[in-house]
Amino acid sequence: MRRATSTATVASVASVVSVALVVLACVKDPVTGKRELILIGESEEIAMGQQGSADVEASMGLYQDAELSAYVEELGQSMAQASERPHLPWQFRVVDSDVVNAFALPGGYVYLTRGILAYMNSEAAMAGVLGHEIGHVTARHHVEQMSKQQLAGLGLNMGTVFFPEVRPFGDILGSGVGLLFLKFGRDAERESDRLGVRYSLGQSYDPTEMARFFAVLARLAGPERQVPSWASTHPDPQDREATILALVSEHSAGRENLRTGAERYRRLTEDLIFGANPREGFMRGSRFLHPELEFQLEYPEGWNVQNTQRVVYAAAPDGGASMQLTVSRVAPGTAPEMHARDFFRQNKLEYGTGERLRVGPFSAYRAPFRALTRTGELYGEAGFVADGDHVYEILGLTRRNAIRFYAPVFQDVIESFDRLRDRSALEIEPQRIHWVQASRNVTLREALLEAGADSNGLEDLAVLNNLGLDAGLNQGQWIKVLERGSP
Ligand SMILES: [Zn+2]
User: Fold this and answer.
1) How many angstroms separate the CA atoms of 365 and 402, rounded?
2) How far is the C-alpha of 265 from the C-alpha of 209, rounded, in Å?
3) What distance in angstroms lies between residue 194's CA and the mean position of ligand 1's atoms?
């Protein structure tokens, strides 16, 4: 969870991208040359992307590194300007997420996560992924996909679903930014791969680096590992590595001096944050600790807690109840009951008589409430904790027949809110990418151990380097290791 930046306050409730104007036209696609029934005109396409990009940036946040951001923007622009749709309002940004992902919104809004950048080893790999995403836009894959969805009578819900029904966890999170997880068909992915290779070659980047990157995705998607989003929406990475290599040999025949840009890439990714950033909150046992905002909260034993940029979600093991924690900026000194009243009103919640209380050193307010959702009534307890110019909103929700059981559980969580004073938690730092050179001819395993890597984490570091642990390194060869920044 991040510090609230605007005083606009109160997390938004489901902003829906409505596609108001559906223009029916038959357009010849500039990339595929096919004549297609396109329901969405270019201005609508751009408007949707623009709204989507605002949602993405508000919910995920941008990664704060001016030099890296400028570099991604510059490389993306040079590829997009050489594409079939240079006039679109292209933008290329790095979102502050450790998920391994890249995505494009309609109209030319392209995002890489810091998570995917950590696993790349060269500019050429990045160019390949950017080129692939540019390809989805130039070939109008979103428009095709959306037209189909519209024909089927489905809308696109891109906003933050603030009051989801009580349901299994992944679902709550998955419903967030729907468009990101638009699955394009196999043909569309092939087409984007082909375009990615073409656009990379246009900038003289070696597209075999992109093919190699699919090997990383295949290893990340392997049996014991969590499936990264890009791999799950882009199936068969292994298969595609081979396909791209075939494309490369077909298109780059006779091309010499293709570059990888590894040196510049190393310079720009040195110190890149890797994995979840504990400064934005982390779990220790059943306790959620937030070093930046200096608070802690205790959840019931066994609850599943998920920290996202704007909301900390928690779900009971049986899925019968969920909680969410958000923070709003307020005018300093705002009484928690005043904020509660605004909050309930803005979110159209009915609330009952509440009470003032103190939690830790903070003044707080607690009240029962009722929410009407698509699937019926939900009951809950809400706590509001005032801390200077912030108010924390802690909500518990369940079904009517379970509120008697859960109300005291929710109240305990609200009352567990306290100032964080533990030094080791306050000073915790994220892990960062650090590039080192092999001092002599050694295996990757030896080089990692020499660089001080933890022997338990060697396999993960091998994936990060896209090498086997027994791979031989030449003296001077660069590898990535992870380091905790000094507090
Ligand atoms: Zn794709």
Assistant:
1) 23
2) 13
3) 11
Q: Tell me the per-residue pLDDT of 357-395, one tens digit each, with 9 for 90 and over.
A: 999 999 999 999 998 876 678 899 999 999 999 999 999
In order of 48, 145, 293, the CA distances from 179 in angstroms are 10, 10, 31
Question: Is residue 12 assigned to a domain?
Answer: no
Give the 3-state DSSP-derived string for 354-398, with helices as H, strands as E and coil as C. CEEEEECCEEEEEEEEEEEECCEEEEEEEEEEEECCEEEEEEEEE
Residue found under tokens 């070659």 = 201
Expressed in angstroms and rounded, the spacing between residue 190 Cα and the centre of ligand 1 is 8
Helix and strand numbers (H, E) in the chain are 16, 22
Q: Does a structural domain hold residue 8?
A: no
Q: How far is the CA of 70 from the centre of ligand 1 (A)?
A: 23
pTM for this prediction:
0.80
- CA atoms of 355 and 337, how far apart (whole Å): 9
The answer on 227 and 133 residing in a single domain is yes
Assess contact for 268 and 121: CB atoms under 8 A: no
Q: How many domains does the chain contain in total? A: 3
Q: Count of residues for the chain?
A: 487
Q: How far is the CA of 141 from the centre of ligand 1 (A)?
A: 9
Q: What distance in angstroms lies between residue 234's CA and the mean position of ligand 1's atoms? A: 6
Residue 156 is classified by DSSP as B
- Would you state the pLDDT for residue 177? 36
**To 5 degrees, how large is the angle CA 364–CA 368–CA 374?**
125
> How far away, in angstroms, is 133 Cα from ligand 1 center?
6
Q: Which two tokens stand for residue 390?
A: 């912030």
Is 17 within the bounds of a domain? no
> How many angstroms separate the alpha carbon of residue 77 from the centre of ligand 1?
19
Q: Does residue 151 surpass a pLDDT of 70?
A: no
SS3 180: helix
Tell me the CA–centroid distance for residue 230 and ligand 1, in Å.
8
Domain span at residue 233?
A: 25-274
Query: Higher model confidence: residue 260 or residue 31?
Result: 260
H or E element that contains 201: helix 186-202
Distance between Cα 484 and ligand 1 center (Å): 33
